[in-house]
């Protein structure tokens, strides 16, 4: 197996807008190519007694599909995002309170889970919640010829043999969460992780730029 | 999560301001907030911003069997989703009173007004018709959800294109957008809902109430009207008595507002059509404001992957080789599998040593016990008056001095000692 040059291995253009909604405590929309997700965060706020955890905050992640009601697919993605957020948020600083993260899919053109993760991280940053590290999501697809494609579109996802999404932390570029589909070898998995780690640096640089722009007070 | 309650001060302030014909955001009584209509990447996706209220509508189509009572009519389905993103008071998956009210009003506004030609949605009479589904998602609640939802829904319906179908004999083929251009829905007119909030039992009236104003209002009047000044639905809620003149005045205001909004919608639709025809990139990504400080965009970036293969190989080589042999399960009886029996213990404990230690411990304890017992007796002789003996022969009440407990190490032996001394004393 061989990794080819730059063809396919690039991130689509991405954009982000923070605090665009007035009601939530933190909100962000993240766009990767045509895929776009809107995220809103409420909290820390009072929690239902049945969901209360005595030593940390309860994090709830809700994902709203564009058409119809949330189904199993949304539930599994909610879980992936929740586990990543729980790993990076310092939940023990807000015991017996609730954090709610709502993700609204605005358009799905591939790499939806990684876009959701990025939107979630930006929204959590906007809400000013204490976190031990930032995280980002990178999706890799392996096509039938064994080439790695980062940030695939919906058409590329459909043609791929395997699809992997990793959440990577900003401190040591370690893998916080992985969600895979399809079959692949150990070597391919390690290659995809290495690609995602180098791609994550670009995304973290984008995070840094957008925060710098936000607090620079000049356009 | 509960909504933040409105304090009495705020309530009084708002009502006082309304009495003085002033509004919090500086609008006049009949003014709408700034409205913005944008479209998504695919057909039938529309965002409406009404001030800070933000609503998204998405139209989708599906081939279904028609209702038996109407075999040659397509089906319209409306769903207003009060996402918890819009307001913390909204809960997911629960039909609240507000969501039922909004859904019903939207249905009356768009389905019962017969603004869409449902007969044109028929493919094969009695067998296949198009079901048009409209999902309206509330993204941010800052009042007047109904108007925003109705504008978003009708604009999305105008923007939507359904796939073309071909019928050959009994076979129905649905063509993809690449094969044949999708077809727009036939829409007769565009009903738009306009909301009026009433205060002080109908004395004061405001158009397009914001969230704060909605909280202090006494009643709400929603008029759905098209640009031909035909009323499609009218609903009054909140239980206020309205005079005939008031309703007439409201319908006059509504007709003006509706013609303004219809013009805005057609302009937005035309702009989008032009952009799509010119082959420009359109959609949500393009409509993102660039001049805002909170927004940033980055162009397509290549990912460095020169050393990826080596890195991956290194990790795979350095990793421990997976165990080649799987311990074969021992099967003592047919039907029972077992793993891990008969293997030497690797815990590094020698049983003999443990036994010795235990013995030592025991002897030590015994010695301790003896010592404490002796001490006990000494103490007992000094503080004998602490022990009380009840009248009854059977029950023995013992009051132990807490200080004594702290002195003695073996608690049980102490207890025994105390009991023994009691008996001795009684004798």
TrEMBL record, chain A:
One of its GO terms (biological process) is rRNA processing. GO terms for cellular component: cytoplasmic exosome (RNase complex); nuclear exosome (RNase complex); nucleolus. InterPro entries: ExoRNase_PH_dom1 (IPR001247), ExoRNase_PH_dom2 (IPR015847), ExoRNase_PH_dom2_sf (IPR036345), PNPase/RNase_PH_dom_sf (IPR027408), Ribosomal_Su5_D2-typ_SF (IPR020568), RNase_PH (IPR050080). GO terms for molecular function: DNA binding; RNA binding. It comes from the Eukaryota. SUPFAM superfamilies: Ribonuclease PH domain 2-like, Ribosomal protein S5 domain 2-like. It holds the Pfam family RNase_PH_C. Keywords: Cytoplasm, DNA-binding, Exosome, Nucleus, Phosphoprotein, rRNA processing. Homodimer. Component of the RNA exosome core complex (Exo-9), composed of EXOSC1, EXOSC2, EXOSC3, EXOSC4, EXOSC5, EXOSC6, EXOSC7, EXOSC8 and EXOSC9; within the complex interacts with EXOSC3, EXOSC8, and EXOSC9. The catalytically inactive RNA exosome core complex (Exo-9) associates with the catalytic subunit EXOSC10/RRP6. Exo-9 may associate with DIS3 to form the nucleolar exosome complex, or DIS3L to form the cytoplasmic exosome complex. Belongs to the RNase PH family. This is Exosome complex component RRP46.
Automatic annotation (TrEMBL), chain B:
Residues 347-427 are annotated as: Disordered. One of its GO terms (molecular function) is mRNA 3'-UTR AU-rich region binding. Residues 349-368, 386-397 have a biased composition (Acidic residues). One of its GO terms (biological process) is U5 snRNA 3'-end processing. Keywords: Cytoplasm, Exosome, Nucleus, RNA-binding, rRNA processing. Its main location: cytoplasm. Residues 32-163, 189-255 form the Exoribonuclease phosphorolytic domain. Residues 369-385 have a biased composition (Basic and acidic residues). SUPFAM superfamilies: Ribonuclease PH domain 2-like (SSF55666), Ribosomal protein S5 domain 2-like (SSF54211). It holds the Pfam family RNase_PH. GO terms for cellular component: cytoplasmic exosome (RNase complex); nuclear exosome (RNase complex); nucleolus. InterPro entries: ExoRNase_PH_dom1, ExoRNase_PH_dom2, ExoRNase_PH_dom2_sf, Exosome_comp_Rrp42_subfam, PNPase/RNase_PH_dom_sf, Ribosomal_Su5_D2-typ_SF, Rrp45. It is found in: Cytoplasm; Nucleus, Nucleolus. CDD domains: RNase_PH_RRP45. The keyword RNA-binding applies. Residues 413-427 have a biased composition (Basic residues). PANTHER family: EXOSOME COMPLEX COMPONENT RRP45, EXOSOME COMPLEX EXONUCLEASE RIBOSOMAL RNA PROCESSING PROTEIN. Belongs to the RNase PH family. This is Exosome complex component RRP45. It comes from Xyrichtys novacula.
């Amino acid at each position: 197996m061989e990794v080819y040059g730059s063809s396919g291995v690039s991130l689509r253009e991405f954009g982000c807008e923070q605090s665009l909604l007035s009601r939530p405590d933190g909100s962000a929309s993240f766009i990767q190519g045509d895929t776009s997700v809107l995220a809103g965060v409420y909290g820390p706020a009072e929690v239902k007694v049945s969901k209360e955890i005595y030593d940390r905050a309860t994090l709830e992640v809700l994902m709203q599909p564009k058409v119809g009601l949330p189904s199993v697919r949304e539930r599994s993605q909610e879980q992936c995002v929740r586990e990543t957020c729980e790993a990076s948020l310092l939940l023990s600083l807000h015991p017996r309170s609730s954090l709610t993260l709502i993700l609204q899919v605005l358009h799905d053109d591939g790499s939806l889970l990684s876009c959701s993760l990025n939107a979630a991280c930006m929204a959590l940053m906007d809400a000013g919640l204490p976190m031990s590290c930032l995280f980002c999501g990178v999706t890799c697809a392996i096509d039938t010829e064994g080439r790695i494609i980062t940030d695939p579109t919906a058409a590329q996802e459909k043609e791929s043999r395997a699809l992997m999404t990793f959440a990577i932390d900003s401190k040591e570029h370690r893998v916080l969460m992985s969600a895979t589909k399809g079959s692949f070898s150990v070597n391919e998995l390690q290659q995809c992780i290495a690609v995602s780690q180098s791609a994550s640096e670009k995304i973290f640089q984008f995070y840094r730029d957008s925060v710098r722009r936000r607090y620079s007070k000049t356009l | 999560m509960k909504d933040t309650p409105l304090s009495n001060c705020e309530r009084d302030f708002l009502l006082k301001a309304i009495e003085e014909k002033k509004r919090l955001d500086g609008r006049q009584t009949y003014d709408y907030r700034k409205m913005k209509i944008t479209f998504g990447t695919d057909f039938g996706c529309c965002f409406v911003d009404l001030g800070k209220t933000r609503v998204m509508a998405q139209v989708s189509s599906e081939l279904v069997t028609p209702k038996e009572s109407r075999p040659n009519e397509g089906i319209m389905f409306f769903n207003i989703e009060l996402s918890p993103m819009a307001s913390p008071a909204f809960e997911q998956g629960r039909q609240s009173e507000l969501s039922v009210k909004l859904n019903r009003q939207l249905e009356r506004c768009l389905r019962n007004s017969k603004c869409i030609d449902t007969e044109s949605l028929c493919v094969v009479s009695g067998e296949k018709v198009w079901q048009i589904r409209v999902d309206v998602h509330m993204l941010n609640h800052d009042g007047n959800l109904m108007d925003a939802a109705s504008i978003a829904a009708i604009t999305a319906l105008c923007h939507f294109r359904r796939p073309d179908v071909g019928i050959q004999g009994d076979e129905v083929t649905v063509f993809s957008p690449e094969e044949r251009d999708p077809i727009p829905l036939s829409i007769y007119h565009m009903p738009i809902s306009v909301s009026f909030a009433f205060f002080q039992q109908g004395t004061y009236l405001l158009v397009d109430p914001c969230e704060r104003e909605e909280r202090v209002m006494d009643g709400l009047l929603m008029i759905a009207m098209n640009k031909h000044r035909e009323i499609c639905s009218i609903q009054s809620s909140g239980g206020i008595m309205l005079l005939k003149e008031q309703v007439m005045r409201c319908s006059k205001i509504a007709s003006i507002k509706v013609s303004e909004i219809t013009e805005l919608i057609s302009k937005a639709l035309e702009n989008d059509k032009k952009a799509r025809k010119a082959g420009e990139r359109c959609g949500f990504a393009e409509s993102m404001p660039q001049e805002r400080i909170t927004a940033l965009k980055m162009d397509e970036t290549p990912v460095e992957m020169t050393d990826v293969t080596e890195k991956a190989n290194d990790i795979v080589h350095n990793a421990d080789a997976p165990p080649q042999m799987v311990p074969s399960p021992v099967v003592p009886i047919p039907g029972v599998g077992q793993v891990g029996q008969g293997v030497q213990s690797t815990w590094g404990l020698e049983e003999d040593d443990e036994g010795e230690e235990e013995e030592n411990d025991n002897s030590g304890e015994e010695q301790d016990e003896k010592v404490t017992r002796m001490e006990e007796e000494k103490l007992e002789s000094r503080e004998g008056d602490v022990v009380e003996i009840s009248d009854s022969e059977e029950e023995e009440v013992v009051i132990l001095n807490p200080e004594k407990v702290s002195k003695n190490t073996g608690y049980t032996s102490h207890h025994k000692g105390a009991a023994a001394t009691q008996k001795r004393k009684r004798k």
